[in-house]
Amino acid sequence: MNAQAVFPVLQERADDLAALRQLLTDDRLGPARFAFLSGPTGCGKSELLRTFARQVTHDGGTYLGATASRTEHLVPFGVWAQLFRGAAFLLPGNGDAAGLLDGAQRHAAAGEAPGDGTVPLSAQVVNTLCLPLLDAVERLPGPVVLGIDDFQHADAVSLQCLAAVARRLGAKPVLIVLGEAPDLPSAQAVLQAELPLEPHSRRLRLRPLSRPAVRDLLTEHLGAAAAERLSDACYDITAGNPLQVHGLIADNRWSDPADGAPAVDSGYTAAVLSCLHRCGDEAQALARHIALLDDPASTRVLTQLAGVDTTTLMRTVNTLNNAGVLSGSRFRHAKARAAVLDNTAPSLRAALRGRVAEVLYRGGAAPVTIARQLLAASPVPDGDWAAEILDEAARTALRGGEPDLAHDCLVRARELEPSDEKLRASITATLFDIEWRTDPCAAVRGLPALAPAPDGLDGTDEGLRAAVPLWLDDVESAVAGLQRINAAPEVYAPGAAAHVQASLQWLRLGYPSATGRWETVDVTEGPAPTTPFADPLSPEVQGAVLLSRLSGTGPDTALADEAERLLRRYRLNERSFAVLLSALITLLYSDRLDAADAACRRLTAEAQRIPAQNWQALFTAVRAELALKRGKLADTIQLAHTALSTISQDSWGVGIGMPLGTLIMAGIASGQLEIARRALRVPVPDTLFETPIGLHYLRARGRHHLATGQPQAALDEFTAIGALMAEWAMDVPALVPWRSEAAWACLALGDRTRARALAQAQLGRCTALQARARGEALHALAACGPAERRTALLEEAATAFAECGALHDRAAVQRELDGIEQRKELSTLGEWQTVMERQEVEPKESEAAPRGRSATTSAQRSRPRPGQTAPSPRTTATAPRQQPFVPTVRPPHGARPDGESLIQANLSDAERRVAELAAGGHSNRQIAARLYITVSTVEQHLTRVYRKLHVKRRTDLAAMLRPRTAALAHAANGHAPQGQDSAAH
Q1: Considering the chain, what percentage of its residues have pLDDT values greater than 90?
Q2: pLDDT digits (tens, 9 = 90+) for 117-150
Q3: What is the mean pLDDT of the segment spanning 408-415?
Q4: pLDDT averaged over every residue in the chain
Q5: From its phi and psi, is residue 155 left (phi > 0), alpha (psi between -120 and 50) or beta?
C-alpha cells in the first residue's frame, strides 16, 4: 500500500517516526527494545504514537496500547489491564486470565494485596497475569509494539508486570514505546531496577513546532493566504505548541480578521486548560497565583504563594514555559490568564486574593497593587495593615486620576473598621472629599460619620466639611457642625477653629438672610471680608474674602488683579476649588471676560481629568454665563444644558439657580421662549431665594414675565431683588442691575416717571468699572427719557457695551440708533411727499370750494409737520415697540407696490432691516453677522416678511425695494424721487 496516501503528514515529526520504525525492524537488536518519547505537554507525543500505531498495523504488525492517567495512577493493574484486554480481543480464548485480572484488581482495591509496587509480584500473579500476555505476544502475527502514553502516571504494579514480560521475551522482537513528560516525576526507576534499558533503548525528544512548521500547519487547514497573515501571531501566542496551534486553527476556521490578528477564543483557551491539567497540580496552582497578579512577580513572592522551595518552583515554571503557557512568569496571552481565572471557583479565587495581598504586603509591593487584591479578597486578612494599605492606595489613586478606585478602596477600608481612631478619621474624611466631587448628596449623607480628627491628623478641612450642607440648603446642619467644633476646639486638630471662621464667611455669603442662626457660633475673628490681600489664612478664606469684597463694594482693578493672580497660583484640588471658583466669578462680574474664559476652560479640562463631575458642572455653568455676557446665545444654551446634565438635579442643590437663570435669559434673548419655559418648570429649592444665586434666578424669571406680557409680575420680581440686595448690603449694579430691569417693567406699565427715576438711580450707582451695568442703565434711560436726548444716551450705551464685550446688547442699541437715523430720512421724504400732494390737491380744492375748503383726510391730519420727527418707539407707554408714522404713497392702479409697502405692511424694525439687507444681496449668514443675530432668527424674519408682502422669493423683494432706495437717495440730495412727477399727473 501507499503509506503516504493513508497517513497524514505530521509537521517536523518525520525523523521521529523513522527512528521508531528502525527500532522495530532492526534485526541487530535484541527482543526487548525500548523507545522513550519525551517533550513538553501538548507537543504531540500522543499524536505521534497514534500515527505510528496506524503504520504498524498497516504493515501487518500488532499494536497494543494503553494510556496512563494522573487520576488513576494509584489504581493497581490499571495500565496492564488495558494491554491485557487488547491482546485478549485479538486472541480469543483467554477468558480465564481476564477473570483472574479482574479479581486481582478487586483484591488490590480492597487492600488485600499491595498495589503500590513495594512488594514483588508473586509467582501466582506472574503465572496468571503476565505469562498469558507473553504467550499472546508470541502468537500474534508480525512485529508487536506495546505503547503506553503518559507513562509517568502508570501504576507501579503494571510496571512490574511489564518488566516481568520484558525479561521473558523470546526471539520475537517487541518494541515498547513509552511517552512521558520530562519535567514530571518519571516511572523509569521501576524499569531501571528490573532490567537494563541500554543498549536497546532510544530517547526521542519532541520539541515545539518552528515558525515555518506553524505556517505549514496553518496552510494545510486554513489556506495559504490566512497562513501568511496569521502564522507569526499564532507562533507568538503558542510558542509552537501543536495543541494550542490546533486550538487557534479551530477559532479561525470560519473567521477572517481584517487586521491580521488571529481570533483567540474557546479553541485556544480549551487547549491551554488541557495543557495545564496535564502539567499537574503544582503547575495548576502556580498558574492560578500568577493569573491573580497584575505584574510579574519575583521568585521570592512566587515561592511564598506556591508554598514550595525555589528548585520546585523553577521546575514548575519551566514546565509551563515549555508548554507554551507562560513566557517567563507571565501568560503568553491575556485569554490564557482569563481562562485560568474563569476556571477557578469564585470562592477559591477570593480566598487566594487574600493570600496574594498578604504576600505582596510582606514583600513591600506598591499600595495600589496590594489594594486591588484586597478589593476582591474574601475574607480580608486580619489586622489594621489592610485598612492602612487601602487608605494609602486611595490617596495614590487620587493623585493618579483614578477616583473610582480610590472610592472603592476607602469604602472597603471603612468596612474593615480598623481599631486605629486616627486611621478611621482619615478614611472617612478622604471618602467625603471624593464623594463631594462626584455626588454631593452621598457626601452629605456621610457627614454624621465625620468624627473629630485625633491629634496629629490634619484637620484644616473640618470646618469646611461642616459647612458643606449649605450647598444642599441645610443651614441647620451646617450651623450645628460649626457649633460642635467651636464648643470643644481642643478635641479637634489644630487649625480647625481657624477654618470655622472661613466657613462662617461662606455662610454669611451664601445665606445672608440666616444671620441669626449662627450668632451662637463665636470664634476668634479672622480677617474681615474687606481686608487687603496681605497674607490670607488659607485658600478657602481667600475665596471668601474675594467674594465679600465683590458683593460689598463691587468690582475694582485691584480685586480683578488679585483674582487673576489666584487663578495662576493654584492648581485644582479640594483645598483650592473654592478660591478658584471665587476668582472666576470675580473676573466674570469685573467684565474681564477673556481672562475668565481662558481660566474656565483650563479648570474645566482639569476637572474632567481628575475627574470631578461636581466641579466640572460648576465651571461649565460659569462658561455659560460668560457666553451670555458676550452675546453668544447658542453657545450659552448648549453650555447651560451641559452643566445641568453633568450632575443630578439633587446634587446641584441651591447652585442649580445659576445655570437655570442663564438658560432662561438666553432663551428669551434668542427669541426661543420655549427653552425659557422648560427651564422655569425645573423645581428649585425654596432656600435658593435666601442666597445670592437666587437673585440671578429671580432676574431671569422677571425677564420672562416681561417677555410674555406680564409687566406687573416682572416689576414685583425686580423690586424683590432690590429689597434683598439692600437687606444683604450687596446692592452692587454689576451683580444684578435690578433698577434698570424694573425701569423697563414700569415703561411697559406706562409709568414713565418711575421708569426714568429708576434708570437715573441705577446710572448714579454705577462706577467706572461697571460698564455693563452702566450701559443697561443708559439704554433704559434712553427709552423713557426726553426724545431729544435719546440718540446721545444710546450712543453712550453702545460705547459702554463695547467696553465690556456685550455684543448682543451693543447690537440691539445699534439697531435702535439705525432706526432713528432711518426715521429721520423717512421724515424728510414724508415732508416732500406732503408738498407734492398739496400741489395736486389745491386745484381740486378750489374747484370744490363750495363744499368747504377745510376738507382734509384723517391721514393728512395725522402727518407730521415740517421739521417734526416720527415718535420714538418707546414714547408711548402702552406700545413700547410702536412703529413710526410714515406718510402713505399711493401707487398707480395696478402698479407693483414700491418700497413704502414695507412700512404699510406693518413690518417691525428687525424685519425691515433684515428685508433691506436681503434685498441688497446679503446672504442670511452675512445678515446675521451684521445684525448680531443667529441665522435661524434671520430665516424667521424673512418668512414673516414674505408673508406680509405677499412675495415668494428674494428677487421679488429686491425688485420691490429698489424704488424706495432710490427715493431715499434723491430725497437726501433735495430732488424728487423718480416717477413722482408721472405719479402726480
Answers
A1: 40
A2: 556 667 777 777 788 788 888 888 788 999 999 8
A3: 92
A4: 78
A5: beta
- Please state whether 194 falls in left (phi above 0), alpha (psi between -120 and 50) or beta: alpha
Whole-angstrom distance, CA of residue 362 vs CA of residue 381:
12
505, 541 in Cβ contact below 8 A?
A: yes
pLDDT at 458 over 80: no
Buried b (16+ CB within 10 A) or exposed e, 129-157: bbebbbebbeebeebbbbbbbbbbbbbbb
Structure-model confidence comparison of residues 387 and 155, the more confident one: 387
Got the DSSP string for 956-976?
A: HHHHHHHHHHHHHHHHHTT-P
Mean pLDDT across 675-697: 92
Mean pLDDT across 865-884: 36
- Mind spelling out the 3-state secondary structure of 93-138? CCHHHHHHHHHHHHHHHCCCCCCCCCCCCCHHHHHHHHHHHHHHHH
Instruction: Encode 908-933 in three state secondary structure.
Output: CHHHHHHHHHHHCCCCHHHHHHHHCC
CA atoms of 729 and 515, how far apart (whole Å): 13
HEC-encoded secondary structure of 393-413: HHHHHHHCCCHHHHHHHHHHH
Distance CA 720, CA 851 (A): 63
C-alpha 946/C-alpha 925 separation (Å) is: 18
pLDDT of residue 721: 95
C-alpha cell at 815: 439697531
Beta carbons within 8 Å of 762's beta carbon, 6+ residues apart: 733, 737, 739, 740, 743, 773, 776, 777, 780
Residues 6+ apart with CB under 8 A from 346: none
Contacts (Cβ under 8 Å, ≥6 apart) of 288: 340, 341, 344, 349, 352
Tell me how far apart the alpha carbons of residues 121 and 17 are, in angstroms, rounded to a whole number: 35
Are the CB atoms for 618 and 471 separated by under 8 Å?
no
DSSP H or E segment with residue 575: none
C-alpha cell, 438: 462626584
461636581: which residue's cell?
614
Contact 538/576 with Cβ under 8 angstroms? no
Span 628-664, pLDDT tens digits: 999 999 999 999 999 999 988 888 888 999 999 999 9
User: What angle separates helix 299-306 from helix 310-322, to the nearest 10 degrees?
Assistant: 100
Question: In sequence order, which residues have a C-beta less than 8 Å from that of residue 398 and are 6 or more positions away?
Answer: 406, 430, 434
* Distance, CA of 292 to CA of 481 (rounded, Å): 45
pLDDT for position 741: 95
Would the pLDDT of 81 be above 90? no
Rounded CA separation 576/568 (Å): 12
- Show the CA angle centred on residue 437, arms to residues 431 and 438, nearest 5°: 95
- Tell me the three cell numbers of residue 806: 456685550
Average pLDDT over every residue of 530-554: 71
Asked if 482 contacts 500 with a C-beta cutoff of 8 angstroms, the reply is yes
